[in-house]
Amino acid sequence: MPLTSFTHSLFVGRAEAAANSTFSDTLATKGDFANKPTATIDVLDPTFLDPTTEIEKAVAFRAISNANGIVLSFAGGDADDDAFTWKIFGWKNENGPAELIADGTGILGSQAVVKYPHNGVAATNKFWADTIVVSNNYWIKRVDATEIGSNSVAKVWFDTAGYRYFLIETPTAVGVMSAYFGYW
Question: What pTM does this model have?
Answer without folding.
Answer: 0.77
